[in-house]
Amino acid sequence: MVVLSLLIALAPGLFLIWYFNHRDKYEPEPKKKIVIIFAIGALMVVPAAIGERLLANLFGTFSTGIVYTAMLSFLIIAPIEELLKFVAVRKWIYRSVEFDEVMDGIVYTVSASLGFATFENVLYVFSLGPVAGIVRAFLAVPGHALFGAIMGYYIGLAKFNPEKESRLIARGVLYAILCHGLYDFLALLQNSFSSFVILLLVVLSLWIRIKLKKAEAASRKRFGSGAETRRTAADEIASSSPTKPDSSQ
């Protein structure tokens, strides 16, 4: 049962990491870097939990009901978690030479986000049971990946547009916080409006699909022609290689 619960907790995050890495086809990132940023993202659960509890108790003394739910979602949970994911990427990978295309912003930020979501999932599964993990596999875990992809796209743009760096990073973080806050707000309402989280995830998925195509186009422009040139040169070398003498002559 423990093994099954662990698989339920880990599977969605690992699948989504594979998917986003699979989209990075022109200059794939070193697996070691992905593992490291995933682990750092997971560790961010600890300061997030501490900060959220402290602020939730503070805000709880001033508000109740739907106002408290909105404050909890938009002013506490979403900002803390998305800012910590951003810190993980900015501090540990942003300046790395491996971060050399816009797609890398998506890949690394999604990896940090999924590290966070996966560790959370493990905690939920072992405290609330496998059903919680199954529900989160279709909602919360993809949600974290999508929030991370939104932020990561703009972080990637920022890396290669230094004159707009601060503005692009701020936009990415803000979009991630707003989307995450809306997701949490709808989910925490626990009424008929909560079903709109599914619509939100669908809309975000379509948005990210557009951003992925733009990032792929940028990578193709940056690396594609070079890769094609290298393949052509290799073919020419192979075709011009001297043939092995016929031993029968």
Write structural notes for this entry.
This protein is mainly alpha-helical. The chain has one domain. About 80% of the residues lie in helices and about 0% in strands. The protein contains nine helices and no strands. Helix 3 packs antiparallel against helix 4, helix 5 (about 100-130) runs antiparallel to helix 6 (about 130-140) and helix 7 (about 140-160) runs antiparallel to helix 8. The chain starts with a helix and ends in a 9-residue tail after the last helix.
Quick recap:
With 249 residues, this protein is mainly alpha-helical. The chain is 82% helix and 0% strand.
Keywords:
9 helices; 249 residues; mainly alpha
Per-chain topology:
Layout lengths: L1 H22 L7 H13 L1 H16 L4 H28 L9 H27 L1 H9 L1 H20 L5 H25 L6 H45 L9
Which regions contain 5 or more consecutive residues with pLDDT less than 50?
A: 227-249
- Averaging pLDDT over every residue, what do you get? 89
- Summed up, the helix count is 9
Shape: globular
Number of strand segments: 0
Biggest β-sheet: count, sense, barrel?
A: none
Which structural class fits the helix and strand makeup?
A: mainly alpha
The ordered string of helix (H) and strand (E) elements is: HHHHHHHHH
Q: What percent of the residues sit in helical stretches (DSSP H or I)? A: over 70%
Strand content: under 5%
Whole-number tally of structural domains = 1
Give the end-to-end Cα distance, rounded to a whole number of Å: 71 Å
Give Rg in angstroms. 22 Å
